[in-house]
Amino acid sequence: MKVLKQMLAIALVAILPALVSARWHPRRPAPPGEGEIEISVVRAWKKPVLWIDARPAPDYAREHVPGALSLNEDAWDAGISEVVLRANGSVPLIVYCGADCNASAQVAHRLRQMGLQPVYVLKGGWETWKRDHP
Amino acid sequence: METRSSMKSFCSVLRWVLAAIFLYAGAMKAWDPARFALDIASYQLLPERVAVALALYLPWLEIVCGVFLLCKRCTSGALGILMILTLLFLAALSSAWFRGVDVHCGCFGFSNAKASYAWMTGRDLVLFSALLFCFKCYSKKGL
Fold first, then answer.
1. How many Cβ atoms are within 10 Å of B6's Cβ, its own excluded?
2. What distance in Å separates the CA atoms of residue A8 and residue B97, rounded to the nearest whole number?
């Protein structure tokens, strides 16, 4: 019983720094669903967009949205300068990854933190784009 | 009497080592929770919302446990939590291994390399054994 009480106390103590981290950490995870956009909406825009592929490099090398730039957490420094150069403050950025992944949300979150906008996450990711472009 | 004294010293050293391991592991993950969220998501076991919440909470839980171990306060409770975390990680790892999912360990904040299941499982079994041994040490009166 004493051990359980100790465990509960420790678990409660850890909540406070976690909440602070969730509010102010510069590298906090993106809230799920932030800035998601449907492929139909992108299609309806009929204007240039900059696609960002947040999947691992081998997946990007195999196949990607035409004109997409590769940018992911593992190779951030290698890819970010090209993205900033091409974003140019005028075209919307649309980030995608696989179907069930969080990488696009994290990359989009980080791009927004850098001041780039508008930045969206493609709902359904790469698989949705593939279905839309058979 | 001498055996008891050396056992006490061994348990203290083991407690410091475990505290250092979890302080380091927690700090590395707390430094970059966004990346840790990706590592958790790579297991494909939890909804995104839960992965994000855990990425913010678990590193601090490890750090708090590490601090308590270091200060020899609530030692059994801290060891209990760390044993549960290690077991949960082993279960998640086994599940990913069984499903053939490529995962990033995320254990020490580095996620560039894909995980080697055998290495991670072995390491965590050793870690769990050390935690269990330490728990038994501090469950005995007088240590």
1. 9
2. 31
What is the predicted ipTM? 0.88
Say which residue the tokens 């140019």 belong to. A88
- Helix B117-139 and helix B75-99: axis angle, to 10°? 160
Query: With an 8 Å Cβ cutoff, are B34 and A6 in contact?
Result: no
Mean pLDDT by 10 residues, chain A (134 residues): 93 96 86 77 86 93 93 88 84 86 85 85 90 81
Do A29 and B57 make contact, defined as CB atoms within 8 angstroms? no
- CA B3, CA A119: separation in Å to the nearest integer? 65
**Dist CA B137 CA B143 (whole Å):** 7
Say how far apart CA A96 and CA B29 lie, in whole Å: 24
Mean pLDDT check: name the lowest of A82-96, B47-61, B108-122.
B108-122
Residue B52 has pLDDT above 90, yes or no: no
- Spatial separation of the C-alpha atoms in residues B122 and A32, rounded to whole Å: 33
* Token pair for A48: 């240039």
Scanning B64-103 for CB atoms below 8 A from A yields 64-65, 68, 74, 76-78, 80-81
Q: Which domains does chain A have, with CATH numbers?
A: 29-132 (3.40.250.10)
How far off is chain B from A55, nearest CA to CA, in Å? Answer: 12
Partnered with residue A96 across adjacent β-strands are A53
The phi and psi torsions of A65 (rounded to 5 degrees) equal -60, 130
Q: Is the pLDDT of residue B127 over 90?
A: yes
Instruction: Provide the whole-model pTM.
Output: 0.73
Distance of CA A119 to the CA centre of its chain: 9
